Amino acid sequence: MGRLTPLAPAEDESSPHRDTRRTATGWRIRIGTFAVTAAMVSAGIMLGAGPASAALAPIRLTSASCPAEIVQGQTSGCVTELQNLLNAHGAGLVVDGQFGSATLYAVREYQAATAIAVDGRVGPATKSKLYATGGSAPAPDNLNSSSCPANIVQGTKGGCVTELQRLLIRHGHTVDVDGDFGAGTAGAVRSFQSAHGLTADGQVGTNTKRELYDTDEAPSTGLDLRSASCPENVVEGQSGGCVATLQSLLNGKGHSVDVDGSFGPQTLAAVKAFQSASGLSADGQVGPKTKAALYANIGGGGGNGAPAPINLNSASCPNEIVQGQRSGCVTELQSLLNHHGADLAVDGDFGSLTNSAVRDFQAEKGLSVDGHVGPNTKAALYGAVTPPSSPPPGGGYAKILDVAAAEADTVEGSARANSYGASVGLSLSTSNYAWCAAFVSWVAKQTGASSYRNSYVSGWVKQARAGNYHLSVTTNPQPGDIVAFDWNGGSDFTGGNAHIGIVRTVPGGSSFTTVEGNTSNPNGGGDGVYVKSRSTNSGYDVVFIRVR
Question: pTM of the full predicted structure?
Fold first, then answer.
């Protein structure tokens, strides 16, 4: 049985580097919301299916032979390929090459589970996600695990190559995710190596693996708004995976907003418009009623979505939660498992995938591996999210450095570090996402120096350049200012190549020191909050942000 491994912590090097969110070992996206379709299949009922006939040969969705959008009513090899991919994710479709009602339902369920705009149309985003989440390729293995060779080379096949191909796609390269290291993958590896200043030999060794995992990503957009992962009320100014899910759901209801994980004016206007159209109070706050309306009929089959989450330790949940149950307790369980890297669909249905995730979690935590969620497993599930024992000193912008410096040597994954995410509406373990900007948001919240909060570095830079939230760009940095790094240059602070911290000292010249979250321990060891030495003349872009 695979061992559930939390997403690996970020790394920060003395050379230009990106904060990291790593793919969990042996995991692929797990979709648990195809129950209705699967039941239809087992009962011999298929919506929209005509007389049985041989399906046309599959055609890769991204090829020129397939339309930009594959939609209901089409019959082709492109639909055959689509159905095969959906089945690889658990849909249970009859593969007939006909895009009927059952295929539409499965597409919409897959989009909902992966936080893509739920429109039932298989466009570029859905195609990319279907291939990037593994398709029929071997399950991915973390490149740094013992399962993978020290040097992965052309001709290699298996889960290590699946993971390599997924990472290349994340960095903007176009490759097939088939687990086969062929010429196309080799070309993409060389291109990646050239772009990152590595020897372009096409061999994936230590340095290439490290660069492949170096990204600055916000938390997963697969968060369910109704789960314990998200605030009861999602409001303007918040950011992260819950906001990204909100934006995807709004797009699925006919709105057009950027899925950037930042709840700004555009998202606020869309929320209010949706609330008005749904007969709700148009206050712009996404509370229980608005969430329920967003999820209503999301699968195209009239389903009401997952039951509302219930704390596992409440009297409403049984002493042991086991496979076969469907309830708000299971919704909460799935959300908590996702905190630990499981990538389950949050549907409130304790099926085989949830059972497997429970067992993997129990093995990871040294618990009895029985798939039963009893008191010990519940305690371990909640153990990753603990509030700080006491608040640090406040006092406005003058106290920013004091508050940040007091957190030095806080270790990633500890209760204290995990509490930083609350500033941006997150209760994830810091081992599971790039949290440098969440740390800066937490410092700002503790001091009251600025009302701005964002888990994206680009958001901080954007607001400073616009002069909003008492933020501005300065060329005369002082202790307590914020500093943002764009490791790839271009000064746009996007594309997964950014970092952020607090200025500690400016001794003169180009050198300065910082207090940073989600950075490597300069004395060796894991990541956390540490003092680092930086420079404005090191080949990367630096922007200093004044908080006044």
Answer: 0.41
